[in-house]
Amino acid sequence: MIARIRARFSCACLAFGLGVAAPAAVAAEPAFDAAQAWERFLAKGDITKAFAAFDVLDKVGYDAVNVDAAQCGRQQQALRKAAQDAPVSIAIRRAAFLCAQAVGDDAGAERELAVLAALSRHALASTGEPGVSKPIRILAPVDAVALLVTGGLRTSYFYYGQLWPKGSLPQFAAAWDPETQTERHYAFDVIDTIYTLDRQNAIHGNVALRNSYALNLVNRWAEAGEVSDLDLAATRAAHEAPDPRGKLAALKPAAQKGGLLSLSTWLTLCDQRPFDGCADDLVEPLLAGAERGEAYPTLLLALIHARGIGVARDEAAAMKLLDRADAIWPSGAVGQYAVYWEMLGTPYPAALQTRLERMQAHGSRMPRRLAIHRKVDEAKAELSADEIAFLADPAENGNGLGFAMLASYYQGRGEAAERRRWLEKAAAAGSARAQEELGWQLFYGEAATRDPERGGRLISEAAQSGRTWAMRHMAEQERLAGRWKSAGMWLFAAVQGDDVDAAFDLIDIFMLDMPEIGTSKDAVATLRSLSDTYDSARARRQLAELALEGVGMPKDPAQAERWLLVDAEKGDHQSQAQLAMGYFYGHFGAIDEAKGQQWIQPALEGKEERAFTGYAGWLYHRKRTPESRAEAVALWNRSIEAGQTAAYNELAWASCTSPYPDVFDAQRGLATVEKMGDPAVLDLPEQDTVAACYAAGGRFAQAIDLQSKAIEQLDVLARANKARFKPMADDFRVRLALYRKGRVYLSRDEDEVAGP
User: Fold this and answer.
1) What is the pLDDT of residue 2?
2) At 14, is the pLDDT very low, low, confident or very high (cuts 50, 70, 90)?
3) In which band, very low, low, confident or very high, does the pLDDT at 49 lie, cut at 50, 70 and 90?
4) What gap in Å lies between CA 552 and CA 729, rounded to an integer?
5) DSSP state letters, 657-685
6) Which of 46, 174, 517, 547 could form a disulfide with 556 if both were Cys (CB 3.0 to 4.6 A apart)?
7) Is residue 297 within 8 Å of residue 258, measured between CB atoms?
8) What is the mean pLDDT of residues 229-244?
9) Which pLDDT score is estimated for 24?
10) pLDDT for the residue 481
11) In contact, 158 and 147? CB cutoff 8 Å
12) Res. 16: pLDDT tops 70
């Protein structure tokens, strides 16, 4: 239906435009309050009834401009019910208005016109310039079309501005204003509306629900042939392709239909990763859009000439095309062109700078915004009072962006109190980045200012808005509560947001072998993909570990060695350290200390943390001489002096549990664990270490309390994977029993270490 509506409606419009008041409502009825209607609808609306209500549009022959008068007469009751079930739908209200006109119901038409005008004004009042304000909330895509045509505009084209949902997936509409002969661009969002209405869904509260709506909508419209949705699907496929030619093959079908996201990605690919024939056929779809008088294809065509992508570099031709795009889209074309140069990290060409200055002189805020943002990113930035006022202006903070930039500015200056003040403002205005940063401070920061409850709420809001670190935090909280499926969904969402760390977190869950989430074989497949797609040394290191253990794949020490050599020979210090440990412990065959020394020395010179801790552990646990133990302690201290954190746990554990008098030092252990931070937020092995040091220092009550809490968490984990976590829980219980008897735990060194 939406394809037909988009194709057929023209600039036919009502008696009022987007900024003009509609006739007043009939005096006998209270004026329609759009804000209250939305508030009630989001709180109490029925999602099933709301979306069933749109069936009435087909029944009355609605195409955004016309209706079937005869059908309108027969569907009056259906229209009234649709308006009751979906009272905020601009499309349904427009259909009701057109039907009232068509059947000669002047009073009804006036009432519906007043409602339609109120909803339209509310929609537009809630937004502003794309990028610095929230998108327009709508109930269904047809409402976007209805809003624009109600205001006398005609949509020229649609496009998406991001690959994956970030809590929402705004769609942009370029609308032609026949009065000014220019384009206006609006952002619309249906995802938050649907999510809010679907409050009874079992996974409500998890961003995976939001993302599933976005993915399903895009897939549905792509199947219906919508260019913008085909465009998004193609660009996602290109993103997943491992090589430039594969990326281009994925992009071309949608790009040749005029998909702007695939065209701009194609352009960037050939600019930054060119190959023979890359830009063949790129010009034609852009030229077609430019000939239709569309701004975005025209400015992309300008970039092709400016960068010499598939054509001779020609700055004069580029500026001629950019001026044409600017005439069509005076509020945005030059700014969007400049954003590409920002992405490249290169200075603006002089001709572009001139046009930005002209754009600013004509009242656009975008050039100054770009300049100030660039300035904030520089080291030791110094903003003027006017620039600070610009960022603090409400016009820059529909979504808290200006406030967030001020927080970054004061962070760069080391002014913590000012940073916190602006973070608070940015978070309150809806900046997901600020919510994430402030939430982190409150959840993990200094004990005196910590507020985990509020911090958790802010992190949750940031996660719902697509911040991937926040999603990983939510996944960890779900994991600790034993809600593994929910944890997996949070991580899947973060992976969709291109967070590679989340992929490794998800792999850790796969290793628990829970079929409803994933298995060790899935872990291996994911690691192979990360190795191939991202050339990830980390993935190859983990693959090597699994190959040595025979987990998720047949045991293959030779392949493990080959994986590690790939990156060790390139100078990757972590791979060098892991390879060295393999030789020291004989993981690839016979123990080979000479090869171990060959690879551990460059890793130590590179101050690789794993080299310090791994080599120290080998010296302490395997060499087991007074000299090697002294060297191990020295290495742990060197690691700590280098600002590394893992050595704290190693040094503290040895200091508090060592059976060797030359290493055991309870006071050193206690001093070390004090530097590790709040035990409540440490990993379980670290909590075990802290408890052991409490006991070694005679603080048995604290040791018992901490060890008991750690065991509670382990028991939750053991319910998901008994084989992996029950032995650890049993070991923790052995130590807890000792603490309850007022005894210190001393390790039996030969039983503790089987190598890394």
Assistant:
1) 34
2) very low
3) very high
4) 24
5) H-S-TTT--HHHHHHHHHTT--GGGS-HH
6) 547
7) yes
8) 92
9) 38
10) 87
11) no
12) no
Q: Give a three-class secondary structure readout of 522-541.
A: HHHHHHHHHHHHHCCHHHHH
pLDDT band at 11 (very low <50, low <70, confident <90, very high): very low
Tokens representing 33?
């309050």
* Residue 377, pLDDT score: 84
The SS3 assignment for 161 reads coil
User: For residue 336, which of 370, 387, 361, 289 has the smallest C-alpha distance?
Assistant: 370
Residue 122 contacts residue 177 (beta carbons within 8 Å):
no
Write out the two tokens for 192.
Answer: 């938050």
Q: Is 132 helix (H, G, I), strand (E, B) or coil?
A: coil
**145-148: which pairs have CB atoms within 8 A and are 24 or more residues apart?**
145/2, 145/5, 145/6, 145/9, 145/64, 145/91, 146/64, 146/89, 146/90, 146/91, 146/93, 146/94, 147/90, 147/120, 147/123, 148/173, 148/175, 148/186
Tens digits of per-residue pLDDT, 723-744? Answer: 888 999 999 999 999 999 999 9
Residue closest to 599 by CA, chosen among 636, 627, 619, 574: 574
Share of the chain above pLDDT 90, in %: 83
585 pLDDT exceeds 60? yes
What spatial distance separates the first Cα and last Cα of the chain, rounded to whole Å? 60
**In 191-243, alpha helices (H):** 191-197, 207-223, 227-240
**Predicted local confidence at residue 29, as pLDDT:** 53
The partner residues of 173 in beta bridges, in order of sequence, read 158, 186
pLDDT attached to residue 25: 38
Please give the C-alpha separations between residue 575 and each of 465, 545, 565, 588, 681, in angstroms, as whole numbers.
36, 11, 7, 15, 29
Task: Give per-residue pLDDT as tens, 167-224.
Answer: 789 999 999 999 999 999 999 999 999 999 999 999 999 999 999 999 899 999 999 9
Please give the mean pLDDT across all residues of the chain: 91
Q: How far are the Cα atoms of 523, 674, 675, 693, 711 from residue 744, in angstroms, in the given order? A: 39, 19, 21, 9, 18
Question: Whole-angstrom Cα distance, residue 116 to residue 63?
Answer: 16
CB atoms within 10 A of CB 500: 16
What H or E segment, with its residue span, contains residue 183?
strand 182-189
Spatial distance between the Cα atoms of 475 and 180, rounded to a whole number of angstroms: 50
Quickly list DSSP for 417-481: HHHHHHHHHHHHTT-HHHHHHHHHHHHHS-GGG--HHHHHHHHHHHHHTT-HHHHHHHHHHHHHT
Residue owning tokens 């006998």: 28
Q: How many residues does the chain have?
A: 756
Residue 195, CB-side half-sphere exposure with 13 Å CA sphere: 25
pLDDT of residue 749: 58
Q: What are phi and psi of 112, to 5 degrees?
A: -65, -35
Query: Across residues 410-432, what is the average pLDDT?
Result: 95
Q: What HEC string does 2-63 produce? A: HHHHHHHCCCCCCCCCCCCCCCCCCCCCCCCCHHHHHHHHHHHCCHHHHHHCCHHHHHCCCC
Q: Three-state SS for 691?
A: helix
Can you read off the two tokens belonging to residue 632? 């191990």
